[in-house]
Specification:
CATH architecture of the largest domain: 2-Layer Sandwich
Order of helices and strands: HEEHEEHEEEEEEHEHEHEEH
Number of domains: 2
Strand content: 25-35%
Number of strands: 14
CATH topology of the largest domain: Fructose-1,6-Bisphosphatase, Chain A, domain 1
Strand order of the largest sheet: 3-4-5-6-7-8-9
Helix content: 25-40%
Distance between the termini: 42 Å
CATH superfamily of the largest domain: Fructose-1,6-Bisphosphatase, subunit A, domain 1
Oligomer: single chain
Structural class: alpha+beta
Amino acid sequence: MELQNITAATCEIAKEAGAFIRKERQNFNLSKVEQKGFNDLVSYVDKEAEKIIVARLGKLLPDAGFITEEGTESDRNQRYTWIVDPLDGTTNFVHGIPVFSVSIALAQENKVVAGVVYEVNLDECFSAFKGSGAYLNGQPIQVSKASQISESLIAHGFPYDDGGKMDEYLGFLRHLLGNSHGLRRLGSAAVDLCYVACGRAEAYLEYNLQSYDVAAGTIIVQEAGGKVSDFRGGDDYIFGGQILSSNGLIHEELREKLLTYFPI
């Protein structure tokens, strides 16, 4: 099956899972929440959405392996692997903050070749596959043309279980507060990346992430004309636990300034 058809089918799967999530949110309450770790929340909604996604993807590409947040499937296939976050932004979901998404990527030999992010609340489906350009609900999108940090809105996130570098990180964020259009902490890495892709933000950065948080969004940013790297400027941003994404024009300025506050 061609990547174009795979991506189109994946959009429908993400929307199906999103419809389930949207319906369950109407009667959701905190008694239905479990804690995997401090500030690491999960609910039956995450788990059931993942089951829906895995079952549908298994029929779409029967020989592909899976990396999933809730462990519905965990087999790693050497050629094709689905990387799935059924509900990116669980804490937002639990508290009723309307920023959360379904994130599905397809990797071929550890390189992401297709990605879909469905923002449930706004009914926005972002998608891309290798060489396709990036799309929002079927319409082409591109990164912004801002060429300096001083013209830019920066999205970011905080690690929920690693505060060892927090002082350095906060120092960098403090610098950005005084030298940009501002900071936004939305609570869904997948959404942050897509907002960079469509020009709503000029950059997004975070550390201590998992592959399923970012895999789909990275190819959407790249196909929209943006740039993605780890903090060093390399390509270990899917499995390396840190990501810097931007419209490309401010990438090196942002990365160099980051490293003055956050040495690695």
